[in-house]
Amino acid sequence: MLRILQFLYRVRAFLLFIVLEVVAIWMIVSNNSPQGAAFFNSSNAVVGGVLKKQADVVQFFSLADANEALVEENAWVRGQLMASQVIPDSLEIKLDSSLQASFEFRGARVIANSLRFSQNYLTLNKGAKHGIKPGMGVFTSQGAVGRIKSVSENYSVAFSLLNTSLLVSSKIKSSDVFGSVQWDGRNSSEAMLLYVPRHVKAFKGDEVITSGFNAVFPEGILIGKISNVAVNEKDPNYLSITVALSADFSKLTYVYLVENTRFEELDSLYRQSEIPNEY
Amino acid sequence: MNIRSLLSYTFLIIALVVVQLLFLKNLALFGYAFAFLYLLGLLILPSTLKTIPLLLISFSLGFLLDVFFETIGMHAAAATVFAFFKPIWLKTTSPTGGYDEVEEPSLSQIGLGRFISYAFPLIFLYALVFFTADQWGTGGFLGVFSKSLFSSLFTLVLAILVQLLFFKRRKGI
């Protein structure tokens, strides 16, 4: 017995090494499961505070660009508003509940962002206090950006579209053929459109938009443009389509969040019929 | 180790970690070469420091980086491997008879050639573990290997430059 203890005492450094490695690997695995609750991440109050201070300084220098983009978008939205405001010329009909908008929009600022890993995340300066919930879609006026992973009181963490574990249900705008956009971990301005069968005619320059089939994004948010079409080498029944992402991930500052107010209803329906919900 | 050197090591490590967190996060030359400059703080810890405190220091530093970079566990795992092999590798690369007890394995103390042969394999090991964890199941071995190689070269160059610029030279040089 004493000998065993002596032996254990002699290899104590090695034992500690093994324990720390196991803890680290456990953290990696539990963080990478999409439903796993991560207690330690950048939405922590202290870390979020530091990141926000840093973003305050850095983003000050890109304020002019951000303003310009906002003005352009405002002008476009005003145009849309003018076009849709028609003076009623007859009786008012009360709208049916099925015509109510099922999406709610919010704004937030990116305070931390990474591009260079294969699992990239964004940290946003809004949290549960501001009505942010896990599962909300994140996009900018240029295109889709990601999905909220977890929230804390004041901050939230989102999967970037540049995260190999995120799939976004999408379609080619001109032909309505749907597939899933997934990042392959190589170039931060390109992603792959998967599961498009070979008989489909896809052309360079076609726009790829969100399909609205999942409960995260409404239909029609731009993801990017097709930059290359080839036959998939691994599975020749499918095309391998490269999409040039329209959102510039190296310059993300202000983002919009969209919540599907009927997410729970849809989700429980999917569960009832045992369809895995793809995000 | 006296109080004064303890303070100076603490200050150095804090400064390197702050630089790492605030400036080197999204820095990647050509998308391949990352800088893990904070490893310099671990590299020059004196050879008298036991393995167990070294492991604990490295793990907590790696974990701190993870929390900020949203890479939970990856830096911690890499830093722990780094810390476990550091004393062993230092003993292997030191001349017969070993370094004096007070000596720290920094550039000015052990010279350029020995510093490279001491630091490069350790940084490379760190990068290899980190990128394997990062690209698990997605990238091929070649991607992991080239990223690790370029990152460790870049980190080594930065570490040497920082020591040349900011560290006090040994008397007589």
Describe the SSE topology:
The complex is a heterodimer of chains A (279) and B (173).
Chain A: H1 2-10, H2 12-32, H3 45-60, H4 63-84, E1 103-113, E2 119-124, E3 137-139, E4 144-151, E5 156-163, E6 167-172, E7 178-182, E8 190-197, E9 207-210, E10 222-231, E11 238-245, E12 254-260, H5 263-272
Antiparallel strand pairs in A: 1-2, 1-12, 2-5, 3-4, 3-12, 4-5, 6-7, 6-9, 7-8, 8-11, 9-10, 10-11
Chain B: H1 3-22, E1 28-29, E2 33-34, H2 39-43, H3 51-69, H4 74-93, H5 107-110, H6 112-134, H7 141-166
Helix pairs in contact in B: 3-4, 4-6, 6-7
Notes on the structure:
The complex is a heterodimer of chains A (279) and B (173). Chain A is α+β, with helices and mostly antiparallel strands and 279 residues long. Helices cover 28% and strands 30% of the residues of chain A. Chain A has helices at residues 2-10, 12-32, 45-60, 63-84, 263-272, and strands at residues 103-113, 119-124, 137-139, 144-151, 156-163, 167-172, 178-182, 190-197, 207-210, 222-231, 238-245, 254-260. In chain A, strands 1-2-5-4-3-12 form a six-stranded antiparallel barrel. Chain A has a six-stranded antiparallel beta barrel with strand order 6-7-8-11-10-9. In chain A, a hairpin with a 6-residue loop joins β10 (222-231) and β11 (238-245). Chain A is globular, with a radius of gyration of 23 Å. With 173 residues, chain B is mainly alpha-helical. Chain B has one domain. Chain B has a two-stranded antiparallel sheet with strand order 1-2. In chain B, α3 runs antiparallel to α4 (74-93) and α6 packs across α7 (141-166). The radius of gyration of chain B is 16 Å and the shape is globular. In chain B, 40% of the residues are buried. Chains A and B meet through α2, α3 and β2 of A and α3 and α4 of B.
